[in-house]
Design brief:
By secondary structure, this protein is α/β, with parallel strands linked by helices. The protein is built from 7 helices and 9 strands, in the order αββαβααβαβαβαβββ.
């Protein structure tokens, strides 16, 4: 299955996969064609950026400006892996087509073994992602829902391996002059 996933991703493909929160859609960050496919699959507005996810913080550090703010480092240590998306200033390695030309990018490390296994075995270890659903509709929470909602639109729906999504979206935070800004309150409570 690892070979199949790699072949799909290297050929501008899009996969669906389980995370700790909801099911996701993803592709290699370097594939502009696959990113376009994700926007088409979801009927997503071009001004809504994708986020980057991995099995570990280290592959994601290439995509953000370093050093990372102290408060961001603290929250990453505390909540990664977990249901927290941290929006940081992006590095020159992050293509504008991923971030809707914004100067920032969201990064996250889901707490899900199936997802971690996918990332450990793909080139670069990072996926450009969003939730597995048509924009405005409920995200998929099970393999069956993922197949039903977007199975005919993606190249592969990765079996969950028994690790299910919990159903509550990640909390999304950013920073303004060192202060935490909560963009979306989700699974993790951030004051």
């Amino acid at each position: 299955m690892v070979n199949k996933i790699n072949d799909i991703l290297k050929n501008d493909g899009v996969i669906a996969f389980v995370t700790d929160t909801v099911w996701g859609l993803g592709c290699l960050p370097s594939s502009e064609n696959a990113v376009k496919k994700i926007y088409e699959i979801k009927h997503r507005e071009a001004k809504k950026p994708l986020i980057l996810m991995s099995h570990d913080i280290y592959p994601l550090l290439d995509y953000v400006k370093n050093p990372i703010e102290k408060e961001a480092q603290r929250l990453i240590k505390k909540h990664f892996p977990g249901a927290l998306t941290v929006v940081l200033e992006k590095s020159e390695n992050t293509p504008d087509y991923l971030t809707s030309n914004m100067p920032t990018v969201g990064i996250r490390v889901p707490d899900n073994l199936t997802f971690a296994e996918i990332c450990r075995n793909i080139e670069g270890g990072v996926l450009a992602t969003t939730s597995a659903n048509i924009s405005g509709e409920q995200p998929a929470l099970t393999y069956e829902e993922a197949v039903k909602y977007i199975g005919d639109k993606v190249d592969f729906v990765v079996p969950s391996g028994g690790f299910e999504a919990q159903g509550r979206a990640s909390t999304v935070i950013g920073f303004n002059e060192g202060n935490v800004v909560v963009y979306r309150q989700g699974e993790i409570e951030i004051q």
